[in-house]
Write a structure and sequence with these properties.
455 residues; alpha/beta; Rossmann fold; 3 domains; 6-stranded mixed beta sheet; 4-stranded antiparallel beta sheet; 23% strand; binds iron/sulfur cluster
């Protein structure tokens, strides 16, 4: 693999000038309670929990409604109090069969009461009475998963038997348009630092570093002000604004200055990486007995009132588009679930009314963009994709192998190391859909390995 060091990690790009983030990061988080929610038993791609409630049941806020049925899944709780109106069975050709629980929200539910005016939102908490085991159980009970997009159950990471030195808190939020992590750092700084302190204990680590890109200096200052008056082993570090700074491996390269060996996990280097919203979720569960039932999500792009919203998990995407004033572009559009670089296109040329499904624990944003037809042309061997690939791969070579359906060659070219960041496709002058084809090849290789017992 050829590698080129740029910025603080290999490769990378500047996909925007930052003005896209200004659409939504200038105003406080809005709080929204829908009349009806739809909570999916698949909260991260391909991982399905088992529904344990029935139509007609009354559920209380935070009641357990889904339990793990396979590795990689987590508890799921009622994110509003109310009555279960329906349980929809979804049969998806990619993701399999799973239930979606539809709940009609009680009229008197006020989401604001969940989080404001709590002692851990105003001061640093003494955590000496919590043991590592209690905190890992809290993560498990609270259904806490990585909220940066991966959706992996947090307790599994922290149960490691490796010696952990450092917890890295991923607050880079390097995707264009998304600002939900930025806003929660500005508005929930005590919760976050209290949560990070708990994570240090849960990992039996020595210290933590909260890592932000330097386009969020105001949030860094806010966190730093709290830490200055404490003796907590937590640092705040500003990193270059460069995509994909928030990739787990890229963050470790940038901060720890070490590379994770191929096929290994960060714990091999004595590191655990957790998203900043996940730290807040742990504080909410530990100090407020609130499982992961809400999240902050950015609704932005071509909508009339871009903003961040704190909403119950399961809030309908249609409702959020409508709450944001509706779609503001007349021409062709596409709606992305997640960020524009790594998210999934869930609709094209939509008026915002026909979106299916609700907010997941991993939903960082809904971004409405203009759309245009992409016409691929033959590769001109310019090498740009190779120069920007943060994984040090040769995307054009893997792409050729993928088109030939030669998975063995894809594997030899380390397709499984692709982090699906999309940087290669972004810079390709021939507009080749490199990331898309390489990601499909990567997933197919993993599927085959799984069928062959991991080989
Ligand atoms: S999508 Fe994969 S191959 Fe393309 S730049 Fe990112 S890591 Fe490299
Ligand atoms: S950037 Fe596009 S045109 Fe250039 S080498 Fe890569 S695939 Fe080929």
């Amino acid at each position: 693999m050829k590698r080129q060091l740029k910025s603080y990690f290999y490769g990378g790009i500047h996909p925007s000038d930052g003005t896209d983030k200004l659409l939504s990061n200038q105003t406080p988080i809005k709080y929204y309670v829908p009349k009806r929610i739809e909570i999916s038993m698949m909260q991260s791609i391909g991982h399905v929990s088992k529904c344990i409630v029935d139509i007609g049941d009354r559920v209380t806020l935070g009641q357990l409604i889904g339990i793990p049925q396979e590795f990689g899944t987590a508890n799921i709780h009622a994110s509003v109090p109310g009555i279960i109106l329906d349980i929809i069975k979804v049969d998806d050709e990619h993701d399999g069969v799973y239930d979606v629980v539809v709940i009609e929200t009680d009229n008197n539910f006020d989401i604001n009461e969940l989080y404001h005016n709590k002692d851990y939102s105003k001061q640093l908490k003494d955590i000496s009475s919590y043991s590592r085991e209690t905190l890992i159980s809290s993560m498990k009970d609270g259904g806490i998963i990585g909220m940066g997009g991966a959706g992996f159950p947090t307790h599994i990471k922290y149960e490691t038997n490796k010696t952990i030195d450092t917890v890295l808190i991923n607050a880079a939020e390097c995707e264009p348009y998304l600002t939900c992590d930025h806003r929660i750092m500005l508005e929930f700084p005590f919760e976050i630092i209290n949560g990070v302190n708990l994570m240090i204990k849960a990992a039996n680590a020595n210290k933590a570093t909260i890592c932000l890109e330097d386009n969020k200096a105001d949030a860094a200052k806010k966190l730093q002000e709290i830490l200055e008056n404490s003796n907590l082993p937590i640092k705040v570090k500003l990193l270059a604004t460069r995509y994909p700074q928030g990739g787990e491996r890229q963050l470790i390269q940038a901060v720890i200055k070490k590379e994770i060996p191929i096929g290994k996990l960060p714990a091999e280097l004595g590191v655990i990486v957790s998203n900043v919203a996940t730290a807040k979720a742990l504080a909410d569960m530990t100090f407020n007995e609130t499982p992961l039932i809400t999240r902050c999500i950015t609704i932005t792009g071509f909508v009339n009132k871009p903003s961040n919203y704190m909403v119950p998990i399961g809030t309908l995407l249609n409702d959020l588009i409508s709450e944001s004033g509706g779609i503001s572009i007349d021409g062709d559009n596409k709606i992305i679930h997640g960020g524009p670089m790594t998210g999934t296109c869930i609709a094209s040329n939509s008026n915002g009314n026909g979106l299916i499904g609700g907010v997941l624990k991993i939903s960082s944003g809904i971004v409405v963009l203009g759309d245009e037809e992409i016409i691929e042309s033959p590769c001109i061997r310019c090498g740009r994709c190779e120069r920007v690939c943060p994984a040090g791969l040769a995307p054009f070579k893997i792409d050729f192998a993928a088109i030939e359906n030669d998975l063995s060659l894809c594997d030899k070219l380390y397709a499984t190391e692709c982090i699906s960041c999309g940087a290669c496709s972004y810079v390709c002058p021939a507009r080749r859909e490199l990331a898309w084809r390489i990601t499909i090849a990567k997933n197919e290789i993993f599927n085959q390995r799984h069928k062959n017992g991991g080989k």
